[in-house]
């Protein structure tokens, strides 16, 4: 399986933590509550292993709410934000307030989750693009509900055999809530090597400036 050196891994976690920091500031303004986000770990794993990590290996697979966007430019990837379905409703309720009935809440869920996905994914990818000094262009967000295996299969496209999933474990902490989610980047092997090259260029520039 594809691996980064310890220095490359630490650099990528640092970059993603900058990205989710920007996302947290945007989310705080939406939910009117202090939001802290962090990326404690990342891993490069096969798609099937990613599905198991997200609960598809359970006797009754957990339903996941996901938002995906396709990015192309410095490297090509399908980015997916995923939360357990019950947690996604919890986030939507924080956005729209306690007074909204459950039926209306579920009707608003798709639009609200696409907005959250757009904020989160663009913050992560935008930070990558800025730090790598390269362009990355994203598609409109798409909403998915199903098991993690169904969502990863739907978004990986036809080249599933030649893809690796970069998993970001995200701690999403609000004043009265703690929600764990994931951002998955589905990357072809060639895109992984492009990503590794960009990380090393970033490290070289950082060392040169210090």
UniProtKB/TrEMBL annotation:
The keyword Cytoplasm does not apply. It comes from the Bacteria. CDD domains: CheC_ClassII. GO terms for biological process: chemotaxis. InterPro entries: CheC-like_sf, FliN/MopA/SpaO. Keywords: Chemotaxis. This is Chemotaxis protein CheC. The lineage of its organism: Bacteria, Pseudomonadati, Pseudomonadota, Betaproteobacteria, Burkholderiales.
């Amino acid at each position: 399986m594809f691996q980064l050196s310890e220095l490359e891994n630490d650099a990528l976690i640092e970059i993603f933590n900058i990205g989710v920091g920007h996302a947290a500031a945007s989310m705080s303004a939406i939910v009117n509550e202090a939001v802290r986000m962090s990326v404690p770990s990342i891993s490069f794993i096969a798609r099937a292993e990613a599905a198991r990590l997200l609960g598809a290996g359970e006797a009754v697979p957990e339903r996941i709410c996901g938002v995906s966007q396709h990015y192309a430019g410095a490297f090509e990837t399908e980015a997916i934000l995923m939360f357990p379905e019950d947690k996604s409703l919890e986030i939507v309720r924080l956005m729209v307030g306690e007074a909204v009935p459950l039926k209306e809440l579920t009707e608003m869920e798709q639009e609200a989750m696409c907005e959250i996905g757009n904020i989160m994914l663009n913050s992560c990818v935008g930070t990558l693009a800025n730090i790598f000094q390269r362009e990355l262009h994203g598609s409109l967000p798409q909403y998915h509900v199903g098991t993690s295996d169904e969502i990863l299969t739907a978004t990986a496209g036809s080249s599933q055999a030649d893809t690796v999933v970069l998993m970001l474990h995200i701690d999403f902490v609000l004043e009265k809530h703690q929600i764990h989610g994931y951002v998955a980047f589905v990357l072809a092997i060639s895109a992984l090597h492009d990503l590794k090259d960009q990380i090393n260029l970033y490290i070289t520039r950082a060392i040169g400036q210090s």
